[in-house]
Amino acid sequence: MATNTNRMALIAADDVDNHKDNGAPRKPEGKQKAMLVCFILGLGSLVSWNSMLTIADYYYTLFPKYHPSRVLTLVYQPFALGTIAIMTWNESKINTRMRNLAGYSLFSASTFLVLVLDLATGGKGGIAHFIGLCVLSACFGLADGLVQGGMVGDLSFMCPEFIQSFLAGLAASGALISLLRVLTKLAFDKSHDGLRKGAILFLACSTFIEFVCIFLYAFCFPKLPIVKYYRSKAAAEGSKTVSADLAAVGLNTKPNDDQGADDDSKQVERMSIKELLLKNLDYAVDLLLIYVITLSIFPGFLYENTGTHQLGTWYPIVLIAMYNVLDLISRYIPLVKWLKLESRKGIFIAVVLRFLLIPAFYFTAKYADQGWMILLTSFLGLTNGYLTVCVLTLAPKGYKGPEQNALGNLLVACLLGGIFAGVVLDWLWLIGHGNW
Protein backbone atom coordinates (compact mmCIF):
# COMPACT_ATOMS: atom_id res chain seq x y z
CA MET A 1 0.00 0.00 0.00
CA ALA A 2 1.35 3.42 -0.91
CA THR A 3 2.15 5.84 1.90
CA ASN A 4 0.02 8.91 2.45
CA THR A 5 2.66 11.17 0.91
CA ASN A 6 2.86 9.00 -2.19
CA ARG A 7 -0.92 9.10 -2.57
CA MET A 8 -0.82 12.86 -2.13
CA ALA A 9 1.80 13.15 -4.88
CA LEU A 10 -0.42 11.12 -7.20
CA ILE A 11 -3.38 13.37 -6.41
CA ALA A 12 -1.33 16.46 -7.19
CA ALA A 13 -0.19 14.89 -10.43
CA ASP A 14 -3.83 14.34 -11.36
CA ASP A 15 -4.61 17.94 -10.46
CA VAL A 16 -2.08 19.25 -12.91
CA ASP A 17 -3.21 16.77 -15.59
CA ASN A 18 0.23 15.37 -15.95
CA HIS A 19 -0.73 13.03 -18.79
CA LYS A 20 -2.54 13.57 -22.03
CA ASP A 21 -5.62 11.53 -22.91
CA ASN A 22 -3.54 9.19 -25.07
CA GLY A 23 -1.21 8.45 -22.16
CA ALA A 24 1.77 10.44 -23.43
CA PRO A 25 3.43 12.39 -20.57
CA ARG A 26 3.58 16.12 -20.63
CA LYS A 27 4.82 18.85 -18.32
CA PRO A 28 2.48 20.16 -15.57
CA GLU A 29 0.46 23.25 -16.43
CA GLY A 30 1.03 26.79 -15.23
CA LYS A 31 4.78 27.09 -15.87
CA GLN A 32 4.63 30.56 -17.45
CA LYS A 33 2.41 31.93 -14.68
CA ALA A 34 4.76 30.47 -12.09
CA MET A 35 7.77 32.06 -13.77
CA LEU A 36 6.01 35.44 -13.73
CA VAL A 37 5.16 35.09 -10.04
CA CYS A 38 8.75 34.03 -9.28
CA PHE A 39 10.00 37.13 -11.09
CA ILE A 40 7.75 39.40 -9.00
CA LEU A 41 8.75 37.62 -5.80
CA GLY A 42 12.40 38.16 -6.74
CA LEU A 43 11.63 41.81 -7.43
CA GLY A 44 10.16 42.16 -3.96
CA SER A 45 13.13 40.45 -2.32
CA LEU A 46 15.48 43.35 -3.08
CA VAL A 47 13.41 46.31 -4.26
CA SER A 48 13.31 47.90 -0.82
CA TRP A 49 17.03 47.60 -0.23
CA ASN A 50 17.83 48.74 -3.76
CA SER A 51 15.66 51.80 -3.12
CA MET A 52 17.86 52.62 -0.13
CA LEU A 53 21.01 52.22 -2.22
CA THR A 54 19.71 54.15 -5.22
CA ILE A 55 18.60 57.17 -3.18
CA ALA A 56 22.02 57.24 -1.52
CA ASP A 57 22.69 60.60 -3.20
CA TYR A 58 19.80 61.96 -1.11
CA TYR A 59 21.30 60.49 2.05
CA TYR A 60 24.70 61.94 1.16
CA THR A 61 23.13 65.41 1.28
CA LEU A 62 21.61 64.64 4.70
CA PHE A 63 24.60 62.82 6.20
CA PRO A 64 27.69 63.96 4.26
CA LYS A 65 30.16 62.80 6.94
CA TYR A 66 28.64 59.39 7.72
CA HIS A 67 29.37 57.50 4.46
CA PRO A 68 25.71 56.36 4.30
CA SER A 69 26.07 53.99 1.34
CA ARG A 70 28.87 52.08 3.05
CA VAL A 71 27.59 52.25 6.63
CA LEU A 72 24.01 51.20 5.86
CA THR A 73 25.30 48.27 3.80
CA LEU A 74 27.71 47.29 6.58
CA VAL A 75 24.83 47.29 9.09
CA TYR A 76 22.57 45.33 6.74
CA GLN A 77 24.89 42.47 5.92
CA PRO A 78 25.68 40.91 9.35
CA PHE A 79 21.96 40.52 10.03
CA ALA A 80 21.37 38.98 6.61
CA LEU A 81 24.31 36.60 7.02
CA GLY A 82 23.47 35.67 10.61
CA THR A 83 19.83 34.97 9.75
CA ILE A 84 20.62 32.82 6.72
CA ALA A 85 23.24 30.89 8.72
CA ILE A 86 20.66 29.99 11.38
CA MET A 87 18.02 29.21 8.76
CA THR A 88 20.40 27.01 6.77
CA TRP A 89 21.45 24.97 9.79
CA ASN A 90 17.82 24.35 10.75
CA GLU A 91 16.23 24.38 7.28
CA SER A 92 14.69 20.89 7.52
CA LYS A 93 12.70 21.91 10.64
CA ILE A 94 11.48 25.29 9.40
CA ASN A 95 8.06 26.07 7.97
CA THR A 96 9.08 27.63 4.64
CA ARG A 97 5.70 29.25 4.11
CA MET A 98 5.81 31.14 7.42
CA ARG A 99 9.48 31.98 6.89
CA ASN A 100 8.90 33.61 3.50
CA LEU A 101 5.71 35.40 4.56
CA ALA A 102 7.50 36.75 7.64
CA GLY A 103 10.34 37.99 5.42
CA TYR A 104 8.10 39.79 2.94
CA SER A 105 6.02 41.26 5.79
CA LEU A 106 9.18 42.57 7.47
CA PHE A 107 10.34 44.07 4.17
CA SER A 108 6.99 45.81 3.79
CA ALA A 109 6.87 47.17 7.34
CA SER A 110 10.51 48.32 7.32
CA THR A 111 10.15 50.14 3.99
CA PHE A 112 7.04 51.91 5.22
CA LEU A 113 8.85 52.93 8.41
CA VAL A 114 11.76 54.41 6.39
CA LEU A 115 9.15 56.58 4.66
CA VAL A 116 7.53 57.50 7.99
CA LEU A 117 10.93 58.34 9.48
CA ASP A 118 11.70 60.76 6.67
CA LEU A 119 8.30 62.43 6.96
CA ALA A 120 8.60 62.66 10.75
CA THR A 121 12.01 64.36 10.57
CA GLY A 122 10.94 66.70 7.79
CA GLY A 123 13.76 65.49 5.54
CA LYS A 124 16.43 66.79 7.91
CA GLY A 125 19.66 65.06 8.81
CA GLY A 126 21.04 64.44 12.27
CA ILE A 127 22.33 61.51 14.24
CA ALA A 128 18.88 60.35 15.42
CA HIS A 129 17.61 60.09 11.83
CA PHE A 130 20.74 58.20 10.79
CA ILE A 131 20.52 55.76 13.71
CA GLY A 132 16.90 55.11 12.78
CA LEU A 133 17.98 54.28 9.23
CA CYS A 134 20.65 51.93 10.59
CA VAL A 135 18.06 50.08 12.70
CA LEU A 136 15.76 49.70 9.69
CA SER A 137 18.72 48.55 7.57
CA ALA A 138 19.25 45.78 10.12
CA CYS A 139 15.55 44.84 9.66
CA PHE A 140 16.11 44.69 5.89
CA GLY A 141 19.03 42.34 6.49
CA LEU A 142 16.92 40.09 8.69
CA ALA A 143 14.17 39.99 6.05
CA ASP A 144 16.71 39.24 3.31
CA GLY A 145 18.09 36.30 5.27
CA LEU A 146 14.57 34.92 5.64
CA VAL A 147 13.38 35.41 2.07
CA GLN A 148 16.34 34.73 -0.23
CA GLY A 149 17.34 31.41 1.31
CA GLY A 150 13.71 30.38 1.76
CA MET A 151 12.76 31.15 -1.82
CA VAL A 152 15.86 29.70 -3.48
CA GLY A 153 15.57 26.56 -1.33
CA ASP A 154 11.88 26.25 -2.21
CA LEU A 155 12.50 26.73 -5.93
CA SER A 156 15.54 24.42 -6.04
CA PHE A 157 13.35 21.30 -6.21
CA MET A 158 11.28 22.81 -9.00
CA CYS A 159 12.42 23.50 -12.56
CA PRO A 160 15.57 25.64 -13.13
CA GLU A 161 13.55 28.31 -14.96
CA PHE A 162 11.86 29.22 -11.67
CA ILE A 163 15.19 29.99 -9.99
CA GLN A 164 16.30 31.91 -13.08
CA SER A 165 13.10 33.99 -12.99
CA PHE A 166 13.51 34.67 -9.28
CA LEU A 167 17.13 35.73 -9.76
CA ALA A 168 16.11 37.90 -12.71
CA GLY A 169 13.56 39.55 -10.44
CA LEU A 170 16.31 40.32 -7.94
CA ALA A 171 18.26 42.10 -10.67
CA ALA A 172 15.11 43.75 -12.06
CA SER A 173 14.56 45.44 -8.71
CA GLY A 174 17.82 47.32 -9.20
CA ALA A 175 17.06 48.13 -12.85
CA LEU A 176 13.53 49.34 -12.00
CA ILE A 177 14.72 51.56 -9.17
CA SER A 178 17.52 52.96 -11.36
CA LEU A 179 14.99 53.81 -14.08
CA LEU A 180 12.75 55.52 -11.54
CA ARG A 181 15.78 57.38 -10.19
CA VAL A 182 16.57 58.75 -13.65
CA LEU A 183 12.95 59.77 -14.20
CA THR A 184 12.63 61.44 -10.80
CA LYS A 185 15.90 63.30 -11.29
CA LEU A 186 14.63 64.61 -14.62
CA ALA A 187 11.31 65.58 -13.06
CA PHE A 188 12.54 67.05 -9.77
CA ASP A 189 16.13 68.09 -10.50
CA LYS A 190 15.40 71.82 -10.44
CA SER A 191 12.57 71.77 -7.94
CA HIS A 192 12.82 72.45 -4.22
CA ASP A 193 13.56 69.26 -2.28
CA GLY A 194 13.80 67.34 -5.56
CA LEU A 195 15.95 64.57 -4.09
CA ARG A 196 13.56 64.12 -1.19
CA LYS A 197 10.49 63.96 -3.43
CA GLY A 198 12.17 61.26 -5.50
CA ALA A 199 13.13 59.30 -2.37
CA ILE A 200 9.56 59.41 -1.04
CA LEU A 201 8.25 58.15 -4.38
CA PHE A 202 10.75 55.27 -4.33
CA LEU A 203 9.81 54.19 -0.84
CA ALA A 204 6.07 54.38 -1.57
CA CYS A 205 6.46 52.22 -4.70
CA SER A 206 8.63 49.72 -2.83
CA THR A 207 6.08 49.41 -0.02
CA PHE A 208 3.34 48.66 -2.56
CA ILE A 209 5.46 46.00 -4.29
CA GLU A 210 6.12 44.28 -0.96
CA PHE A 211 2.37 44.10 -0.26
CA VAL A 212 1.86 42.54 -3.70
CA CYS A 213 4.51 39.91 -2.93
CA ILE A 214 2.79 38.97 0.34
CA PHE A 215 -0.48 38.45 -1.55
CA LEU A 216 1.11 36.48 -4.40
CA TYR A 217 3.10 34.15 -2.16
CA ALA A 218 0.24 33.56 0.28
CA PHE A 219 -2.67 33.10 -2.13
CA CYS A 220 -1.55 32.70 -5.76
CA PHE A 221 1.75 30.83 -5.97
CA PRO A 222 0.71 27.75 -3.90
CA LYS A 223 -2.39 27.20 -6.04
CA LEU A 224 -0.56 26.94 -9.37
CA PRO A 225 -0.79 23.32 -10.60
CA ILE A 226 2.91 23.03 -11.42
CA VAL A 227 3.86 24.34 -7.97
CA LYS A 228 1.53 21.84 -6.27
CA TYR A 229 3.08 19.10 -8.37
CA TYR A 230 6.68 19.90 -7.43
CA ARG A 231 5.88 20.43 -3.75
CA SER A 232 3.94 17.18 -3.64
CA LYS A 233 6.87 15.41 -5.24
CA ALA A 234 9.24 16.92 -2.67
CA ALA A 235 6.93 15.82 0.15
CA ALA A 236 6.87 12.30 -1.27
CA GLU A 237 10.68 12.34 -1.14
CA GLY A 238 10.59 13.22 2.56
CA SER A 239 10.60 17.03 2.65
CA LYS A 240 8.83 18.55 5.67
CA THR A 241 9.36 22.18 4.66
CA VAL A 242 6.53 22.15 2.10
CA SER A 243 3.83 20.82 4.45
CA ALA A 244 2.30 24.21 5.28
CA ASP A 245 2.18 25.28 1.62
CA LEU A 246 0.46 22.05 0.63
CA ALA A 247 -1.94 22.31 3.56
CA ALA A 248 -2.85 25.83 2.38
CA VAL A 249 -4.23 24.32 -0.84
CA GLY A 250 -5.92 21.37 0.86
CA LEU A 251 -3.24 18.70 0.42
CA ASN A 252 -2.50 16.83 3.65
CA THR A 253 1.03 15.47 4.06
CA LYS A 254 0.73 14.02 7.56
CA PRO A 255 1.18 10.24 7.51
CA ASN A 256 -1.23 7.80 9.14
CA ASP A 257 -0.18 6.37 12.51
CA ASP A 258 0.58 2.95 11.08
CA GLN A 259 2.79 4.51 8.42
CA GLY A 260 4.64 7.00 10.64
CA ALA A 261 7.70 4.84 11.23
CA ASP A 262 8.14 4.11 7.53
CA ASP A 263 7.85 7.81 6.61
CA ASP A 264 10.27 8.88 9.35
CA SER A 265 12.88 6.45 8.09
CA LYS A 266 12.45 7.78 4.57
CA GLN A 267 12.74 11.40 5.66
CA VAL A 268 16.13 10.97 7.30
CA GLU A 269 17.66 9.37 4.22
CA ARG A 270 19.28 12.51 2.93
CA MET A 271 22.71 14.06 2.87
CA SER A 272 23.70 16.33 5.74
CA ILE A 273 24.59 20.00 5.32
CA LYS A 274 28.27 19.11 5.71
CA GLU A 275 28.09 16.42 3.03
CA LEU A 276 26.29 18.75 0.64
CA LEU A 277 28.90 21.44 1.25
CA LEU A 278 31.80 19.07 0.55
CA LYS A 279 30.19 17.81 -2.67
CA ASN A 280 29.44 21.35 -3.85
CA LEU A 281 32.44 23.17 -2.41
CA ASP A 282 33.38 24.64 -5.79
CA TYR A 283 29.89 26.11 -6.28
CA ALA A 284 29.98 27.54 -2.74
CA VAL A 285 33.37 29.15 -3.35
CA ASP A 286 32.18 30.45 -6.73
CA LEU A 287 29.26 32.35 -5.18
CA LEU A 288 31.41 33.60 -2.33
CA LEU A 289 34.03 35.03 -4.68
CA ILE A 290 31.51 36.45 -7.18
CA TYR A 291 30.01 38.67 -4.50
CA VAL A 292 33.27 39.48 -2.74
CA ILE A 293 34.42 41.13 -5.97
CA THR A 294 31.09 42.76 -6.80
CA LEU A 295 30.41 44.26 -3.37
CA SER A 296 33.99 45.47 -2.93
CA ILE A 297 33.21 47.80 -5.86
CA PHE A 298 29.43 48.25 -5.91
CA PRO A 299 27.95 50.55 -4.69
CA GLY A 300 30.41 52.29 -2.31
CA PHE A 301 33.34 52.70 -4.69
CA LEU A 302 31.08 53.90 -7.50
CA TYR A 303 29.56 56.60 -5.28
CA GLU A 304 32.68 57.86 -3.52
CA ASN A 305 35.84 56.95 -5.43
CA THR A 306 35.23 57.57 -9.13
CA GLY A 307 36.00 61.27 -9.17
CA THR A 308 34.20 64.19 -10.86
CA HIS A 309 33.38 64.08 -14.57
CA GLN A 310 31.31 65.83 -17.23
CA LEU A 311 28.14 64.06 -16.13
CA GLY A 312 28.35 65.79 -12.76
CA THR A 313 25.68 64.61 -10.33
CA TRP A 314 24.38 62.23 -13.01
CA TYR A 315 27.62 60.24 -12.97
CA PRO A 316 26.96 57.85 -10.03
CA ILE A 317 23.33 57.49 -11.13
CA VAL A 318 24.43 56.39 -14.61
CA LEU A 319 27.00 53.98 -13.18
CA ILE A 320 24.49 52.34 -10.82
CA ALA A 321 21.89 52.16 -13.61
CA MET A 322 24.31 50.53 -16.07
CA TYR A 323 25.34 47.94 -13.49
CA ASN A 324 21.71 47.08 -12.69
CA VAL A 325 20.56 46.90 -16.31
CA LEU A 326 23.43 44.63 -17.39
CA ASP A 327 22.99 42.50 -14.29
CA LEU A 328 19.35 41.97 -15.31
CA ILE A 329 20.09 41.24 -18.98
CA SER A 330 22.83 38.77 -18.11
CA ARG A 331 20.46 36.66 -16.01
CA TYR A 332 18.52 35.77 -19.15
CA ILE A 333 21.57 34.76 -21.19
CA PRO A 334 21.74 31.23 -19.67
CA LEU A 335 18.26 30.54 -21.04
CA VAL A 336 19.99 30.16 -24.41
CA LYS A 337 21.43 26.68 -24.02
CA TRP A 338 24.58 27.16 -26.08
CA LEU A 339 25.40 30.35 -24.13
CA LYS A 340 25.09 28.70 -20.72
CA LEU A 341 28.37 27.76 -19.06
CA GLU A 342 27.84 24.27 -17.59
CA SER A 343 31.43 23.27 -16.87
CA ARG A 344 32.22 23.47 -13.16
CA LYS A 345 35.86 24.12 -13.96
CA GLY A 346 34.95 26.76 -16.54
CA ILE A 347 32.74 28.61 -14.04
CA PHE A 348 35.52 28.58 -11.44
CA ILE A 349 38.07 29.98 -13.93
CA ALA A 350 35.66 32.75 -14.94
CA VAL A 351 35.07 33.62 -11.27
CA VAL A 352 38.79 33.81 -10.49
CA LEU A 353 39.44 36.00 -13.54
CA ARG A 354 37.01 38.57 -12.12
CA PHE A 355 39.69 39.50 -9.57
CA LEU A 356 41.30 41.46 -12.40
CA LEU A 357 38.40 43.89 -12.10
CA ILE A 358 39.81 45.34 -8.87
CA PRO A 359 43.02 46.79 -10.42
CA ALA A 360 41.01 47.63 -13.55
CA PHE A 361 38.62 49.82 -11.54
CA TYR A 362 41.48 51.41 -9.60
CA PHE A 363 43.43 52.48 -12.68
CA THR A 364 40.30 53.47 -14.60
CA ALA A 365 39.21 55.76 -11.75
CA LYS A 366 42.69 57.25 -11.57
CA TYR A 367 43.60 57.69 -15.22
CA ALA A 368 40.65 57.07 -17.58
CA ASP A 369 37.57 59.10 -18.46
CA GLN A 370 33.93 58.40 -17.64
CA GLY A 371 33.25 56.31 -20.75
CA TRP A 372 35.71 53.60 -19.69
CA MET A 373 34.28 53.54 -16.17
CA ILE A 374 30.75 53.10 -17.52
CA LEU A 375 31.96 50.24 -19.73
CA LEU A 376 33.77 48.56 -16.86
CA THR A 377 30.78 48.91 -14.53
CA SER A 378 28.56 47.35 -17.19
CA PHE A 379 30.93 44.39 -17.43
CA LEU A 380 30.84 44.01 -13.64
CA GLY A 381 27.04 43.71 -13.75
CA LEU A 382 27.12 41.41 -16.78
CA THR A 383 29.46 38.86 -15.19
CA ASN A 384 27.77 39.07 -11.78
CA GLY A 385 24.31 38.12 -13.04
CA TYR A 386 25.44 35.54 -15.58
CA LEU A 387 27.66 33.55 -13.22
CA THR A 388 25.12 33.68 -10.38
CA VAL A 389 22.41 32.10 -12.55
CA CYS A 390 24.80 29.46 -13.91
CA VAL A 391 25.77 28.32 -10.41
CA LEU A 392 22.35 28.35 -8.77
CA THR A 393 20.59 26.55 -11.62
CA LEU A 394 23.25 23.86 -12.07
CA ALA A 395 23.99 22.98 -8.44
CA PRO A 396 20.62 21.39 -7.42
CA LYS A 397 20.60 18.88 -10.29
CA GLY A 398 20.82 15.23 -9.24
CA TYR A 399 19.54 15.64 -5.67
CA LYS A 400 16.25 14.79 -3.96
CA GLY A 401 13.75 17.42 -2.81
CA PRO A 402 14.97 17.81 0.81
CA GLU A 403 18.59 17.90 -0.34
CA GLN A 404 17.81 20.47 -3.03
CA ASN A 405 16.14 22.71 -0.46
CA ALA A 406 19.11 22.38 1.90
CA LEU A 407 21.59 23.05 -0.91
CA GLY A 408 19.65 26.13 -2.04
CA ASN A 409 19.83 27.56 1.48
CA LEU A 410 23.51 26.66 1.77
CA LEU A 411 24.46 28.37 -1.47
CA VAL A 412 22.53 31.53 -0.58
CA ALA A 413 24.41 31.56 2.74
CA CYS A 414 27.68 31.49 0.78
CA LEU A 415 26.39 34.25 -1.50
CA LEU A 416 25.51 36.47 1.48
CA GLY A 417 28.86 35.61 3.06
CA GLY A 418 30.55 36.91 -0.08
CA ILE A 419 28.46 40.08 0.04
CA PHE A 420 29.44 40.68 3.66
CA ALA A 421 33.14 40.13 2.93
CA GLY A 422 32.91 42.43 -0.09
CA VAL A 423 31.26 45.17 1.95
CA VAL A 424 34.05 44.99 4.54
CA LEU A 425 36.74 45.04 1.86
CA ASP A 426 35.05 48.02 0.22
CA TRP A 427 36.27 50.16 3.11
CA LEU A 428 39.84 49.57 1.97
CA TRP A 429 39.20 52.07 -0.85
CA LEU A 430 38.65 54.73 1.82
CA ILE A 431 41.82 53.77 3.65
CA GLY A 432 43.79 53.96 0.41
CA HIS A 433 42.45 57.45 -0.33
CA GLY A 434 42.59 58.68 3.26
CA ASN A 435 38.92 59.72 3.14
CA TRP A 436 38.03 58.87 6.71
| Poorly predicted segments | 1-25, 256-261
Helix run count:
19
Largest sheet features:
none
* Gross geometry: globular
Report strand %: under 5%
How many β-strand runs? 0
- Distance from N terminus to C terminus (CA atoms, Å) equals 70 Å
Structural class: mainly alpha
Secondary-structure element series: HHHHHHHHHHHHHHHHHHH
User: Radius of gyration from the CA trace?
Assistant: 22 Å
Mean pLDDT: 82
Summarize the amount of helix as a percent range.
over 70%
Descriptive terms for the model:
19 helices; mainly alpha; 75% helix; 436 residues
Structure description:
The chain is mostly helical. The protein has helices at residues 4-15, 31-54, 56-62, 68-89, 96-121, 127-156, 160-188, 194-220, 225-236, 243-248, 260-267, 273-279, 281-295, 300-304, 314-330, 344-353, 357-367, 370-394, 401-433. The chain starts with a helix and ends with a helix.
Short description:
It contains 19 helices and no strands. It has helices at residues 4-15, 31-54, 56-62, 68-89, 96-121, 127-156, 160-188, 194-220, 225-236, 243-248, 260-267, 273-279, 281-295, 300-304, 314-330, 344-353, 357-367, 370-394, 401-433. The protein starts with a helix and ends with a helix.
Write the layout of secondary structure elements.
Blueprint: H1 4-15, H2 31-54, H3 56-62, H4 68-89, H5 96-121, H6 127-156, H7 160-188, H8 194-220, H9 225-236, H10 243-248, H11 260-267, H12 273-279, H13 281-295, H14 300-304, H15 314-330, H16 344-353, H17 357-367, H18 370-394, H19 401-433
